[in-house]
Write a structure and sequence with these properties.
By secondary structure, the chain is an all-alpha fold. The chain folds into 2 domains: about 240 residues, MFS general substrate transporter like domains (Growth Hormone, Chain: A, Up-down Bundle); about 210 residues, MFS general substrate transporter like domains (Growth Hormone, Chain: A, Up-down Bundle). The protein contains 16 helices and 4 strands. A two-stranded parallel ribbon has the order 1-4. Strands 2-3 form a two-stranded antiparallel sheet. Strand 2 and strand 3 form a beta hairpin. Helix 4 packs across helix 6 and helix 7 packs across helix 14. It is globular and about 60 Å long. About 50% of the residues are buried.
């Protein structure tokens, strides 16, 4: 059975469709929105909570296992003050959440099924958020959040693909809609959970994240009748054996090889939270004069540009793809991913031009705005369509695990982003941005090399 064919026999025009898509998509969209609200709400507070509250003398010693973790990190990095220690713990947390989906996907494919893993992940994450109120359990709360995310993340994504029959052209657009849910939660989280945590009390912020996760779980349970049965459930019911044949190995090999250039996409993309923030803070003229307001744009506001633009641009991207599909001109999934890499390169060329044009002066904030516009378009062409690609060609019996492997590209990309960022201080800014543009462009060239074999496999 094809990995992309939903086991409930869904057709491209099912009676329960809502706005041209299966009704289950709206439930999965909302579930993912609240899960991302909880994740980004927690992420927005974590470093501030550690440096401003938890790691103060008298509290630090009460956290179970923290002294041991600090000693282990110092054995690798040398003596650590509270701020560097907080950054290392933050880095461990945000990287491990992209490794555990491999385990979560494997358990879904072989033991529990996707639905049970989503519920398990949601419960673990909700408990983890609420455990943050108990300071001695801080590290245990992080572990629950890491493993909960690993159980949840790959299995919610694979269910989006399972809503569509093999060859359904709406699949790429469905993942773009789903991606809006991710970024809507990411946009709302700092405004709600972040504000509560900073202004009212840390535990109120973490509590808001936990409530958001509980809302996502409730919505997912309500959605159950609209979702297709798990592939594992179908196989157990029919007694079907799923040998890993030649076609399966071809699909897995293609995804693993394709993951390499995508890792470089994320390595350059993730500079927006690293060196791009430094560019905005030190090298950008953030003065703005409007009829109703004038002043300096806060540096942190630029971090909200990307999720806001994803929400704003997605309807236009979907409309473009729909228009192209009606004329038989919609790019294939692999071609869209290549476009995403090239848009990424173009975005960094904009900053190269800004650095070259400004010289010793500060560059206008409009350059940075243009950078985010082009980068966001590139992300919309690559990220949601990559999720769609995995759901199309990964073998059904290991689909969730392959989704977890694909999500691990963000882990490796984030690690490489840190390495590339280490050159920021030693390179001229024009050279630095040109380096990032070249890396993103080479990633696009590598994806182009796979377009023909992937299109043949997908019959696109």
């Amino acid at each position: 059975m094809s990995a992309s064919a939903p086991s409930n026999g869904a057709t491209p025009a099912a009676a329960g469709d809502l706005f041209g898509h299966p009704r289950g998509l709206s439930y999965l969209f909302t579930t993912e929105m609240w899960e991302r609200f909880s994740y980004y709400g927690m992420k927005a507070l974590l470093v501030l909570y550690m440096t401003k509250y938890l790691f103060e003398p008298g509290r630090f010693e009460t956290v179970i296992g923290l002294a041991t973790l600090k000693a282990a990190l110092e054995s690798m990095f040398g003596p650590l003050e509270m701020q560097p220690l907080s950054s290392h713990i933050f880095g461990l947390y945000t990287s491990l959440v992209y490794l555990t989906p491999i385990l979560g996907g494997y358990l879904a494919d072989r033991v529990l099924g996707q639905r049970r893993m989503v519920v398990t992940g949601a419960v673990l994450m909700a408990i983890g958020h609420f455990m943050m109120a108990f300071e001695p359990l801080f590290l245990f709360a992080l572990l629950l959040l890491i493993f909960g995310n690993g159980a949840f993340k790959p299995n919610i994504s694979t269910q989006v693909g399972a809503l569509y029959a093999a060859g359904d052209p709406r699949r790429d657009r469905a993942f773009s809609i789903f991606y809006v849910g991710i970024n809507l939660g990411a946009w709302l989280a700092p405004l709600v959970a972040g504000t509560l945590g900073e202004e009212v009390g840390w535990h109120y912020g973490f509590g808001a994240a936990g409530i958001g996760m509980m809302l996502g779980l409730i919505i997912y349970l309500i959605a159950a009748p609209t979702l297709p049965p798990d592939e594992l459930t179908r196989r157990l019911a029919t007694g079907e054996r799923t040998p890993f044949g030649r076609e399966g190995w071809r699909a897995v090999t293609a995804l693993l090889i394709l993951s390499l250039p995508v890792t470089f996409f994320w390595a350059t993309y993730e500079q927006q939270g690293n060196t791009i923030a430094l560019w905005a803070d030190t090298y950008t003229d953030r003065t703005i004069n409007l009829l109703f307001w004038s002043g300096q744009i806060p540096t942190t506001w630029f971090q909200s540009f990307n999720p806001f633009m994803i929400i704003a641009f997605t309807p236009f991207i979907i409309a473009l793809w729909t228009w192209q599909a009606k004329r038989g001109r919609e790019p294939s999934t692999a071609t869209k991913m290549a476009y995403g890499c090239f848009y990424n390169a173009a975005a960094h060329l904009i900053l190269f031009a800004a650095a070259w044009y400004a010289g010793a002066d500060k560059a206008s904030w409009l350059w940075l705005t243009a950078y985010f516009v082009v980068l966001t378009i590139g992300e919309l062409y690559l990220s949601p369509t990559a999720l769609s690609l995995v759901s199309k060609i990964a073998p059904a019996h290991c689909l969730s695990m392959m989704m977890g492997v694909w999500l691990a590209t963000s882990f490796y990309g984030g690690f490489l982003a840190g390495y590339l960022g280490s050159f920021w201080s030693s390179m001229a800014k024009t050279d630095f941005f040109l380096m990032l543009a070249a890396i993103a462009a080479l990633a696009g060239v590598a994806v182009v090399a796979f377009i023909r074999p992937l299109n043949a496999m997908l019959r696109e």
